[in-house]
Write a structure and sequence with these properties.
190 residues, 8 helices, two-stranded antiparallel sheet
Amino acid sequence: DDAGHDQRPADGERDDGADLRRLELEVERLTDLMAENPEDEKLLDSYGRAQAAFEALGGYAAEARAQTILAGLGFTQDRMNAPLRILSGGWLMRVHLGKLLLAQPDLLLLDEPTNRLDLESREWLIEWLQGFKGALVLTSHDRLFLGHLVQRVLLLESGELLVYHGNYSEYEVKRAEAISRLKAAFTRQA
C-alpha cells in the first residue's frame, strides 16, 4: 500500500476530514511497519510522503483546532471523549456544527445555528463567525445573533427578491419605512 498517491479529494472538492483521518492512520501504520523493518527504503519513502501530506492538510494542528471549537461550543473534555452514540440530539447538532467549522470551508450555509446553544456557546459562535474569512449565508430567528453578523438581508416577497444593505436592525427600519410608503401610496390611490 503506497501512501504516495494523490492525497486531495477528486474534482476540486474540499477535504472534509476523511482524508486527514485516513492519512493519520496511514502514518501510524507505516510507523509500526518501520519499527519492524527500519532499513526498508521503500517503506521510509512511503512514510515520508504520508507524513508530508498529513502536515500539508494541517494534521498536527487539527486536533487542537477541533478541541478549541468543541470547547467553544460548550463541550467539556469528558464530553469530547465520549462516544457519539451517547450524546443527545442537541449535542450531536453541536458536533456537526463543529465539524463544519473545523473544515474551514469557503462558504458556510447555516440554518438556525443557535438552536440548542447556550448563551456562552452562542457568543463564542458569533465571535468565530465574525472572524470567518469565507462567505456566510444563514437563516435564523435569533435577532441578536443576526444583528452581530448580518451585512445584507435578502427578502423574497411576491416572487421578487429585495436586497437590504446593513445589519438586521437597519433592515427592520428600512423595511418598516418601505411598508409605510406603500401604505401611503395605496391611500393616495384610493
